[in-house]
Each structure stands twice: as C-alpha cells, then as structure tokens.
Amino acid sequence: MSKITGDVINVGLLKRVFQYVKPYKNTFVWAIVLTILLAVVAPLRPIIIGYTLDHYIFTGNYAGLLNMTLLMLFLLVLQTGLQYSHTLLTNTLGQSAVKDLRINVFNHITKLRLKYFDNTPIGQLITRTVSDLETIAEIFSEGLIMIIGDILMVIVLVGVMLARDSMLTIIVLLPVPLLIIATSIFQKAIKSAFQEIRTEVSNLNTYLQEHITGISIIQYFAREDQEYKKFVKINGRYRDANIRSNWYYSIFFPVVEIISAMSMGLLIWYGSKTILAHPLSIKPGIITEFIMYLGMLFRPIRELADKFNTLQMGMVGAERVFKVLDTNEVTENNGTLKPDKLKGSISFDKVWFA
In 42-61, which ranges are continuous DSSP H helix? Predict the structure, then answer.
C-alpha cells in the first residue's frame, strides 16, 4: 500500500507526469493564460458596482446607471466565457495526458511475466489503470492549475483592497489567521481520510474481481455465506472511510462560515463607525465593494485545503502508476531465428496429451 508523504508536491513525480503533457503544450499554456486572466478580471465587478453606487445611483444619474449596467453585463459574459474555456481546457489537458499514460500502462502490463500476476491481485491493477489514473487527471482539472489560480486571485484581491482602503483591509482581514489555522488542521485530517478511501477502494476492487472471476470455485465449495460476510466487512470499511471524510467537511465548512461572519461583522462595525464619525471618509460604494471582496476572498482560501489534497492524491496515484511502469518483470525476446518466409501451416508430429 502506498503511503502519503509529507510533501504536497513530489517534484520527481510531477516531472514524469508532465512528460505526458508535452504533446499538449499549447493547451497547457492557454490554461495558464486563462488562469491569470480570471484572477485579474475578478476584482473588476466589485469596483464597477461600488463606483456605480457612489456616482450614479446616489446622484440619480439614470443614463450613467444604464451604461454601467451594460458594462457589468459585458463583464459577466466575459467572466463566464473565460471560466468555461478554463474549465474545458484544464479537463481536456488532464484527460488527454491520462489517455496516453493509460495506453502506456496497459501496454506495459500486457508484457509482464505471468509470475507477476501470480503475486499481484488483478483488482489492484484495475485500480491502477482506472481510479489512480483519474486522480492524476485531477492534478490538472482541480489540483495544480486551480491552486495557482486561487493563490493568484487572493494576492490580486488583497492588493486591490489595500489600494482601495488600507485600514479597512487590515481590519476585515484580522480573522484570516484563524482561517489559515483551521484550513491547516482540516488539510491534515482530510489527507488521512482520503488515503484510507483510496486504500479501501483498491481492496474492494481486488475482492470483487477475484471473487466474481472465481465464482464457480466459491459455489463448488459452498462458500457463499462466508465470502458474503467478508464482503460486508470490506464494504463497511469503505463506508466508514467516506463517513469520516464527510464528518471533517461538516466541521470545517461551518467554522469557515463563522470566521467569514467575523470579518463581515468587523467590516460593518468599522465602516459604520467611521461613516458616523466622518461621513465623507468612507463612501458607501467602498463598503459594498468590500462585502463582495470578502466573499470572493474566503472562497479560494476555504477551497485550497481541498485542492491541496486533490493534488496530493494525484501524487499518490502517480506514484502507484509509475511503480507499475517501473516493474521490470518482462520476458525479453532474445530469439535469433529470423525465417525468410513463413508458410503459415502447423503440423503436430509425435505430440500427445496425457
């Protein structure tokens, strides 16, 4: 059973995975470009809404409000198009790379000696060529590229918030260290739960493959009840592993909501206090902007733990798959006979079966 190491990113494994990305270099480059564009475009909508509130809604400028509404609609369509293209490209990249890798794995398995299959459960190989390869695909669709995009978005949002109002930004970000601590604890807890799920999936696949293939033997020896009880235990362990991971999520998300509410409370408290004391120091549009910024800021931070685990599971899947590829139990073709012409006919001479 492969174990998760402490490193989120195994550089050596990542290099081997990216060997399968080279044929799709253009797709990868465009995915990175779209990731950057999405991070840059993200703060524009709150800025436009805040500006519209201060300069057109409160002043009763209907014509200006109509123009800004059209601009926001255009920006919304642009973001939708960018997000659609980004999702399509990252998933296409992951599935294309995994398609080539799966072909290599299958081709390698078919050339292994029969002794290897005597010592290795077939269900385990099925898991390697199906489930583990899917976790590698998620490195691109939900892992590495998404992590880069979320981190870049957080940096851009914090930079824009500081530029708009540095003191208000510091106030509303005071609970963020609590979020970072909660995310770190959650990431460590869910990591072990995910590893347990992957292990139990492999055990379940192995058990099902072996027992369905050998169902005639089970029936010959009237072992149906005994094997059923074993299956119930394996299936129960798989259920318990999923319940444990869901339990961690059920705790983490409410904690994040509480921390987000704390930031929102600090924003309302400081904003209202400043407006009452100095009515012209903070405009209502700024408060509206920051309300939107908080929602946009907490979402990627909350999801980073999940995406880091997705990346880590992809690393574990890659380690397992490349372990199969690195298996050198192959029967070499050392034949020296190269006939000029084969007639294609076979004759049995002095051959008998005892």
Answer: 44-52
Q: Around Cβ 260, how many Cβ atoms within 10 Å?
A: 19
Bridge partners of 330, per DSSP, are: 112
Q: What is the Cα–Cα distance from 2 to 134, expressed in whole angstroms? A: 16
Residues 6+ apart with CB under 8 A from 80: none
Please determine, for residue 44, whether its predicted confidence score (pLDDT) is greater than 60: yes
- For residue 214, the Cα-to-chain-centroid distance in whole angstroms is 36
Instruction: Please tell me whether residue 59 adopts helix, strand or coil conformation.
Output: coil
Alpha helix (H) ranges present in 110-130? 114-119, 122-129
Residue 3 has pLDDT above 60, yes or no: no
> Is the torsion defined by CA of 18, 24, 28, 33 positive or negative?
positive
Instruction: Give the model confidence (pLDDT) of 293-343 as tens digits.
Output: 888 888 887 777 777 777 877 887 888 888 888 888 776 767 777 777 777
Residue 112's DSSP bridge partners are 330
Contact 95, 139 (CB under 8 A): no
For residues 215 and 205, give the distance between their C-alpha atoms in angstroms, rounded to a whole number. Answer: 15
| pLDDT of 130 strictly over 90 | no
Average pLDDT over residues 119-133: 81
Per domain, the residue ranges of the chain are 11-325
Here the tokens at position 190 are: 């869910």
CA 237 to CA 206: how far, in whole Å?
A: 14
Q: How many whole angstroms separate alpha carbon 63 and alpha carbon 69?
A: 10
End-to-end CA distance of the chain: 43
For the domain made up of 11-325, the CATH class stated in words is: mainly alpha
pTM reported for the whole predicted model: 0.74
CB 155 within 8 A of CB 40: no
